[in-house]
Structures are given as C-alpha cells and as structure tokens.
Amino acid sequence: MWWPHREVERPRELPTIDVVIPVLNEEESLPLVLDAIPGAWVRRVVVVDNGSNDRSAERARERGAEVVEEPQRGYGAACLRGLRYMAEDPPEIVVFLDGDFSDFPAELPRVVEPILTGEAELVIGSRTLGAQEQGALLVQAVVGNKLACVLMELMYGYRFSDLGPFRAITWEALQALRMRDEDFGWTVEMQIKAARQGIGAVEVPVSYRKRIGVSKVTGTLKGSVLASYKILYTLFAQYALEVSAVERRRKR
C-alpha cells in the first residue's frame, strides 16, 4: 500500500494521460465528473456510451470529451471499446473513472503519482483506505470486495483492499494483460493478471461518496448476485489457468 504525504504537483514533463469513462444513463452526474477532472493533467477524455437512452453522450460532447458507442452492455465491454478507440494514438497512462460522480476526479494526480515516480505500473484507488461518505459503499460491495481481496492474496500473494474502479495503468502494462472480460469481472481480472505477471501494483487511498442515481451492479439484488458470481468465477478460472501452466512447465 502506498500513501501520498502531500498534494501532488504537476510535473513539468508529464506523460500523456487519457481517461476512459464508461457510462449508461449518466446525464445528471457525468457533467460533474467531467468538470472535476484536472484538465492540466489529461490529454483527452474518452466517454464510452454503453447504450444510454438519455443525453449522456450529448452532455459529454458539450464538455469536450470524445464519445464512442458500445451497444453491447457491460462495464468491461465499454472499457475495451474505449481502449480500441485509443489504440491508434495511445497514451502512456490510462485512467479509468466511473461516470456516477462517486469518485473524486480531482484526486487523479494522487492515483497516477506512483506511476510517475516509477514505483508501480498499476495503481488501484482504494475506497476502503480513503475517506467515505456514510452509506457510499453498500454492505454487499464491502463483503464482496473483502472476499475477493482475501482470495487474491491467498492465490497470488498480492495484497489489495479494494476492487475500486478509479485506477491508473501504463499502456504497456495494459497491453501485456490482454484484458478480455466484458462485464462485472473487469476490475478483478486486471488485478489478478497483474499478480500473475508480476506487474508492480500499489494502492492509494481515494475518497468516495454516494453515487448519483442507482447502481447498475450493487443497487439491485440481481446485480449484486451476478457481480459476485462473476468476480468469484474470474478468480477461480484465472487460478486454474495458473495451476495448469505450472503443471505444463513441470512436464517439460
């Protein structure tokens, strides 16, 4: 775990940083997210519209974001679409943010600093280590995160406290991970693959507040159950791949 001791100043020579924001009907919160991103740190913001039937895309364009469409529903599918869009002119660092204004985009410098200083290639913004508004993290999210993180430590030796969506990763490391998950398993897949490949990963504390609107994942019983199942499935599936790879190496 890494903890900043001061406010992060903008380096004179800043690597290119792009932000990906998957959205689904976030017209009320998205403008707040975009306005709070520290523009001096970011080259561009890519908003991936995941099938909204409101004015999310319009609101994003009004604030200068680049908007791409991903009709296939799923958090991971939206993130993958954003990365494909960026691939023609990739950044050095990618930051992932949610569009519901539960994260504090102004803390982006804190999240990217361990990469800038060469301490890590992947940085997870930990909501459990940071300041939380009461009730921002629902009980099912707290329990699910804790279980997943305990299992990751037992299986892979990497200690995390959260699967938070606010995170930063180098483009080079992201390509090495070969991300595939198209829905709820996206965040845990990234952390598992980083552990399997020995990619340097740290956490920083980030603030967290109640989101605007109802969560598509933890806001309903069905969403919570599906998310929990997919996270656990991803954990054990990746572990099975690791065990299989070890067995193949032994037989050589």
Describe this structure in words.
By secondary structure, the protein is of the alpha/beta class. It has one domain: Spore Coat Polysaccharide Biosynthesis Protein SpsA, Chain A, CATH 3.90.550.10. The protein is 41% helix and 14% strand. It has eight helices and seven strands, in the order βαβαβαβαβαβααβα. It has helices at 30-36, 56-62, 75-86, 108-116, 139-156, 171-177, 186-197, 221-251; strands at residues 17-23, 44-49, 66-69, 93-96, 122-126, 167-170, 201-205. Strands 3-2-1-4-6-5-7 form a seven-stranded mixed beta sheet, sandwiched between helices. Helix 5 (139-156) runs parallel beside helix 8 and helix 7 (186-197) packs parallel to helix 8. The longest helix is centred in the C-terminal third of the chain and has 31 residues, at 221-251. This is Glycosyltransferase family 2 protein. Keywords: Transferase. InterPro entries: Glyco_trans_2-like, Glycosyltransferase_2, Nucleotide-diphossugar_trans.
